[in-house]
Design goal:
Length: 371
């Protein structure tokens, strides 16, 4: 038994068999039913590219132009080998720097086949005269998955010697990938030049026809009519009544319950808030019944556009219960008036809570920290 190599290893055949003139390269495998594997050889020049399409030796071009490399055909297996290729080293032209041996799956991609289902793949080199095995490379199981073509090994010149290197280089793109690396035009998508042979097998997997893209019907964009404001007006409406128009002035609003807050108000509402002591008057809201205590006429602070019945004037600086009305006569509020005012305050507070719920939704602030 010859030298056992692993992927990437190499050995001098000339030193293994002094006076070596010819070798037989055997390639073997075990594959599932329906797999069609083909061995081939590429005679490459100094640039690492095949010399011509005729120097691609395979089942339909069994001999190189000079006759130094011959494919024995894809008939019955010979011993442990499924196919064999013979090389007369003494006749290989000096322009050939290396001979690459490969195996491909015929229409592997189209059939959904790959080397992950190929077992016990090997390449071995024998002395053509004596039949002695000089070197062997067994591909490690489980190292291949989606490849449809594989370079097993290569014979190459090293000075006056011939050496062998274990490659194990797989190509998921099949022979097209090998053609790109080694410049085999007959394997490319373009039509090959006229030659002395016509391939009986097609190496290009069929190009799938892309399915037409489904028509995408864009949904009509929602129509939004923005409220019209005079040029230069702010976009926020009056806090107290949107029908008043834009809120052009920021004022401090003190609700019946809660803390003061800045709001945008129209000019008239802003003046009313700034000249009226808290709690400020809340205008009637459409759809909500307003309970107004009777018997408390007021003068002096009624604003245009607001009905303000039942609300007394703010207390003066003396903070007594005696309140001086504009135009004369004082009045003292009794217990009934206080109870009525308290009921009105509760209703106004409920309306304010409703207004706050509508105006300001809950907000969650997420803080981001960088290290």
């Amino acid at each position: 038994m010859g030298v056992a190599l692993t992927k990437g290893g190499n050995v001098s055949l000339t030193r293994q068999a002094p006076g070596l003139t010819g070798v037989t390269v055997g390639l073997g495998w075990q594959a599932d039913t329906g797999y069609d594997l083909d061995a081939a050889a590429l005679l490459c020049g100094p640039a690492g590219k095949v010399l011509s399409d005729e120097h691609f030796v395979f089942f339909n071009n069994l001999t190189s132009p000079d006759g130094s490399v011959r494919h024995t055909g894809s008939g019955a297996p010979s011993g442990p080998d499924d196919q064999q290729i013979r090389a007369d080293l003494s006749r290989v032209p000096d322009t050939v720097e290396k001979i690459v041996f490969l195996v491909s799956l015929y229409e592997g991609a189209a059939r959904g086949q790959h080397f992950g289902r190929v077992r016990r793949a090997h390449i071995r080199v024998q002395d053509q005269d004596s039949g002695t095995e000089l070197v062997r490379y067994d591909l490690a199981p489980g190292t291949l998955a989606g490849e449809t073509a594989l370079c097993f090994g290569e014979l190459y010149r090293h000075g006056a010697e011939w050496k062998f290197r274990a490659l194990g280089q797989g190509y998921a793109s099949g022979l097209a990938g090998i053609a790109a690396d080694y410049g085999v035009d007959v394997l490319r998508d373009t039509a090959p030049p006229a030659s002395s042979y016509t391939p009986q097998k097609s190496y290009e997997p069929p190009t799938p026809t892309p399915a037409p893209a489904p028509a995408v019907v864009a949904a009509p964009a929602p129509v939004y009519s923005a409220p019209s404001y005079p040029p230069g007006s702010p976009s926020m409406t009056c806090f107290f009544d949107p029908n008043h128009g834009p809120g052009a002035t920021t004022v401090s609003w003190s609700p019946q319950w809660g803390s003061p807050r800045p709001v945008q108000a129209c000019g008239s509402c802003a003046q009313r808030v700034q000249t009226t002591a808290p709690p400020f008057y809340t205008p009637p809201q459409q759809g909500y019944p307003q309970q107004v205590p009777q018997g408390y006429p007021q003068q002096g602070h009624a604003q245009q556009g607001y009905g303000q019945q039942g609300y007394g004037q703010p207390y003066g600086g003396d903070h007594h219960h005696d309140h001086q009305q504009q135009g004369g006569g004082g009045r003292r509020f009794g217990a009934g008036a206080l109870i009525g005012a308290g009921a009105a305050g509760l209703v106004g507070g409920a309306l304010l809570n409703e207004a706050f719920d509508d105006d300001e939704p809950d907000m969650v602030v997420n803080n981001y920290y960088e290290d």
